[in-house]
Each structure stands twice: as C-alpha cells, then as structure tokens.
Amino acid sequence: MQFILDTLYQDGRLLHVYKDGIAKLNGYLDDYAFITDALLDLYEATFDTRWFELGHTLMETTITQFWDDDGGGFFFTSEDHEQLIVRSKNPYDNAIPSGNAMCVHNLLRLSAFTGRSDYRDKAHQILCIFSDHMEKAPGGFGHLLSGLAWHLNQPKEIAIIGAIDDETTQAMLKAVNTDFRPYKVVALYDPASGQERAAKIIPLLENRSLVDGKTTAYVCEDFVCRQPVTTAEELAALLT
Questions:
Q1: Which domains does the chain have, with CATH numbers?
Q2: CA 24 to chain CA mean position, Å
Q3: pLDDT digits (tens), the chain, 240 positions
Q4: In this structure, how many other beta carbons lie within 10 angstroms of the beta carbon of residue 230?
Q5: Each residue's pLDDT tens digit, 190-209
Q6: Handedness of CA 143, 91, 31, 19 (dihedral sign)
Q7: Exposure check for the chain: N or C terminus, fewer CB within 10 A?
Q8: What is the secondary structure of the chain as a DSSP string?
Q9: How far apart are CA 164 and CA 151, in angstroms?
Q10: 49-66 vs 29-46: helix axis angle to the nearest 10?
C-alpha cells in the first residue's frame, strides 16, 4: 500500500499506471473503489487511523469526481477525464467486483464508522438503480448482492477502548473476529496513546471511555449503543 501511495497518489488523486518509474493516466472508478476498500481493511487490521483517514478522503474524492448527480451511481471515468462520447456506468461483477459494487460496500462501512446517512443514502440509490439487473441476472451481480445484504442487515458498530496489546483487548478482538460476522465495523482507541485525534477522525469512537479503568467495548446499531461491557465473554454475548 505504501508503494501505491508514494508513487500513484499525487495531489490528492490516484493515477492508473506505473512503469519505469513513471506514474500516469487518471485513475478510474475501480482504482478508487478498491484502494478505499483496502485502506478500510488496513485500518481494521491495525487500527492505525492514517489508513482510515485516507480511505475516508478517497471516498469523498470518488463522490466528487465520479458520482452521477442526475441519475445516481458512479461513472467509470472521473469528472475531469478526457472527453468521451459517453461516460459509462458499469454495475456488472465479473472476475473482480464492479466499481459500483465496491463503492456500495465502502459507503455502508463508512456510514457505520461515521454515522453519516448521506453515505447510506448513496449506497441505497445505487442498489435501487441496478435492482432490475440483480433480479433478472443475479449471477452477474454477486458483490452488489452482497452489498444489498449489508444494507438490509443492520451492521454492528463495535468500539473498543483500551490498549491494543492489553490481554482483554486482544480477547475482545478474538471474540469479534473468530466467527463469521460480515455485517460489522470495528474501531479501537487507546486512551493512553496520546492519539486523541482518533475520536475526531472516527465518530464511532467519540465520547467512549473506559469503565472503571478497564478495557471497554461498546456495541451499537445506527449509533444507538447497548450497555458497555468489560469482558470478552460479555462482548461475544452481545454479538450473537
């Protein structure tokens, strides 16, 4: 990822090609969608907020450059791409998911992290636009249908407050990740780390604190949270 950011990310925009030390050509929708997805995955794997912050920024750039304000959905080429006869909008999942399908997932994940309903609304609009396609030929829209499943299943928003190397924190992360739970996001903040910006960057972490000085987990849906818990067993019970 760092190589891509160092060589193919310039002036806030992604480039499409790198060869012989030269990066060129404006990035396409798929470039933005897959890199955003990877950055959000990196955040949930490491809880390094720089990955989340950049992923969030790329999603905003994607909306600015690719969103169709008239018909909804994302064009394949950016607003400032060279002029074409028509700007295509591809919903089909082939060997890899389509850019629109990836963006549905990215928008829904970011909505869960940030509480922003406009992200969820855009994902809903994409799903509505291509609903007839999914109904008539579901085999061609596997990842888009996966996004529909996320949209229909209220995701769990999990905030863990504690040191990442703490035994209880690790036990909680294991409880969250051991079983297959596709409809969730996980954010973590260590109050002793001095990274107060984390709560400002990720609204899911705002106003979350330790309970009795112990590692604490908050399980929320649409930013409405259950009673915080301080053990991995209690957390697992909330996720069932």
A1: 2-152 (1.50.10.20), 156-239 (3.40.30)
A2: 26
A3: 999 999 999 999 999 999 989 999 899 999 999 999 999 999 999 999 999 999 999 999 999 999 999 999 999 999 887 777 778 898 899 899 999 999 999 999 999 999 999 999 999 999 999 999 999 999 999 999 999 999 999 999 999 999 999 999 999 999 999 999 999 999 999 988 766 788 889 999 999 999 999 999 999 999 999 999 999 999 999 998
A4: 18
A5: 988 766 788 889 999 999 99
A6: positive
A7: C
A8: -HHHHHHSEETTEEEEEEETTEEEEEPPHHHHHHHHHHHHHHHHHH--HHHHHHHHHHHHHHHHHHB-TTT-SB-SS-TTSPP-SS-------SSS--HHHHHHHHHHHHHHHH--HHHHHHHHHHHHHTHHHHHH-GGG-HHHHHHHHHHHS--EEEEEES-TTSHHHHHHHHHHHSS---SEEEEEE-GGGT-THHHHH-GGGTT---BTTB-EEEEEETTEEPPPB-SHHHHHHHH-
A9: 30
A10: 160
What is the widest separation between alpha-carbon atoms in the chain? 63
The one-letter code for the residue type at 51 is W
Beta bridge partners of 185: 157
d(CA 66, CA 73): 8
Q: Is the pTM of this model over 0.85?
A: yes
